[in-house]
Write a structure and sequence with these properties.
Layout lengths: L3 H6 L2 H14 L11 E6 L2 E6 L13 H20 L2 E7 L8 E9 L30 H9 L6 E6 L2 H18 L3 H9 L1 E2 L2 H7 L3 E2 L7 H9 L3 H7 L4 H14 L3 E7 L4 H20 L3 E4 L2 H12 L6 H17 L7 E9 L18 E3 L1
Parallel strand pairs: 1-11, 6-7
Antiparallel strand pairs: 1-2, 2-4, 3-4, 5-8, 8-10, 9-10
The structure holds flavin mononucleotide.
C-alpha cells in the first residue's frame, strides 16, 4: 500500500525505499517485544521517536532497555539504507530538551554504487532463540567474526566459553527468573505481558507469545497456573522460585558461551551505541548460523533497584541483584569504571525456535510531516 501523503512530496522510488528501510528497522529486538518507536518522515529525513508509554516495565527504568532497542533500529536503518544505495547520517537526540526524539536520520541517494552490506540478509532472519543449544565451542573464526562485527570503540564485547564461567553466568542470569517468581510486582508485570495463543499474539502484537518461551512440557502446564500470584506465593514455601531458576540455568548452560557488552557511562547515547553494537553481533551470529538469546533481565533490574530503591524489592532481592551484577563483572574481569549493560548466550545447533514474535504493520509506525 502506498502512503498517500508521501506520494505528493517525494518521488515514488524514494517513498518505496523509505518504507522498505522502516520495514527493515522494525525487525529490531525490543524488551517484551514492546516496539517502542515511531517514525516521522519529512522529505529525505526520518525522525525516530521513543514511545515511553509502550514500555512501562520494571525492566525499563530510565528507558535504558528502550534505548538499546532504538540502537538496534538505527543499525537496521543504516544497513537497509546502504543496501538501497543511500548514504546515512544519524544525529542522536537532535532536540536536547526532548529525550524521546531519539534521532534525525538524513538519507542521501548516491549516484555511484556502493558495496552491499553483508548483514542485510540477516535482518529479517534474526530471532531470539530460548531453546537449549549444543555446547560445542565456537571456532576461532566464529569468535573473530563476532568480535570484529563491532565498529564502535566505545562499546566493548567480551565472550567466555569456559565451563566454570558458563555455569556461574547461567546461575546469575537465571536469578532474574527466580526473583521474578518471588516478587509480586515483577510476577504480575510479566504475566500481564504473556500472550497465550497465536490469535491473541497476532491481535496484540506485543508481549511474550508463550510458544517463544520454549517451556518444556511439565513447565508449560504449571506456567498457566503460575500466573496466579497467590498460588506462586504458596508454592514458594516449597522452593518453587528457586526451582524455576534452576531449570532456566540448565537451559542457559546449554550454550557454547556467554557474552557481554560494556560501556563507559550510562548516558542514553551510550545505551543506544550498545544497541547498535548488539544488533551487529546478533546479525553476524545469524549469518554464521548461530543461536542467540539475551540473558539481560538481571542487568536491567540493577537500574530498577537504583531508581525505585527498596519500594519494589526486598533486602534479599536487592542483595542478589547487586551481587549478581558484581559477579558478572568479576567473571569477565571488567574494569570497575565500565558498565556491563547486556549479556547474551550463544551456541551452535540447527535448533529452530518454535515460534516468532509478531510485529505491528509498518504503516502503524509512520507519520508524514
Ligand atoms: C533491551 C533488551 C533486553 C532483552 N532481554 C531479554 C532477556 O533477558 N531474555 C530474553 O529471553 N529475551 C530478551 N530480549 C529479547 C526480546 O524479548 C525480543 O527481542 C522480543 O521479544 C522480540 O523477539 P525477537 O527478538 O525474536 O524478534 C531482550 C531484548 C532487548 C532489546
Amino acid at each position: 500500500m502506498l502512503l498517500p501523503h508521501l506520494k505528493k512530496s517525494l518521488d515514488y522510488k524514494m517513498e518505496q525505499d523509505i518504507k522498505q528501510i522502516i520495514q527493515d528497522a522494525i525487525y529490531a529486538p525490543s524488551g517484551e517485544n514492546c516496539q517502542p518507536w515511531s517514525f516521522r518522515i519529512s522529505g529525505a529525513t526520518i525522525n525516530l521517536f521513543n514511545l515511553p508509554e509502550r514500555d512501562q516495565s520494571p525492566y525499563n527504568r530510565g528507558q535504558y532497555g528502550s534505548y538499546v532497542a532504538h540502537g538496534a533500529v538505527l543499525e537496521n536503518i543504516k544497513i537497509s539504507a546502504e543496501q538501497l544505495g543511500y548514504r546515512v547520517d544519524i544525529k542522536l537526540f537532535p532536540e536536547p530538551s526532548n529525550k524521546n526524539h531519539i534521532a534525525l536520520i538524513s538519507l542521501e541517494k548516491l549516484s555511484t554504487s556502493i558495496e552491499k552490506p553483508i548483514l542485510y540478509g540477516a535482518i529479517a532472519k534474526r530471532v531470539t532463540n530460548r531453546k537449549p543449544y549444543e555446547d560445542t565451542l565456537l571456532s576461532p573464526l566464529e569468535l573473530d567474526e563476532l568480535v570484529k562485527s563491532i565498529s564502535d570503540n566505545s562499546v566493548k564485547i567480551l565472550i567466555t566459553q569456559k565451563n566454570s564461567d558458563k555455569k556461574t553466568l547461567a546461575e546469575i542470569g537465571s536469578l532474574n527468573e527466580s526473583i521474578m517468581m518471588s516478587n509480586e510486582f515483577l510476577h504480575d508485570f510479566f504475566f500481564s505481558h504473556v500472550t497465550w495463543t497465536k490469535e491473541m499474539d497476532e491481535q496484540k502484537k506485543i508481549g511474550f507469545f508463550v510458544d517463544t518461551l520454549e517451556l518444556p512440557l511439565p513447565a508449560k502446564k504449571l506456567f498457566k497456573i503460575a500466573k496466579n500470584w497467590k498460588i506462586v506465593k504458596f508454592l514458594n514455601k516449597f522452593g518453587f522460585s528457586k526451582e524455576v531458576g534452576k531449570q532456566n540455568a540448565k537451559t542457559y548452560t546449554s550454550s557454547s558461551g556467554f557474552g557481554i557488552l560494556s560501556i563507559k557511562d550510562t548516558s542514553p547515547e551510550s545505551f543506544i551505541n550498545a544497541g547498535m553494537a548488539l544488533e551487529r553481533i546478533w546479525l553476524t551470529a545469524t549469518n554464521l548460523g548461530l543461536n542467540f538469546q539475551p540473558v539481560s533481565g538481571l542487568l536491567f533490574l540493577v537500574y530498577a533497584v537504583k531508581l525505585d530503591g527498596t519500594a519494589q524489592f526486598s533486602k534479599n532481592q536487592t542483595d542478589l541483584i547487586d551481587k549478581g551484577y558484581e559477579t558478572i563483572k568479576k567473571t569477565f574481569q571488567v574494569d570497575s569504571s565500565e558498565n556491563v549493560v547486556f549479556m547474551f548466550r550463544i551456541g551452535h545447533g540447527n535448533i529452530k525456535p518454535t515460534a516468532r514474535s509478531s510485529r505491528f504493520n509498518v504503516e502503524d509506525f509512520i507519520q508524514v510531516a
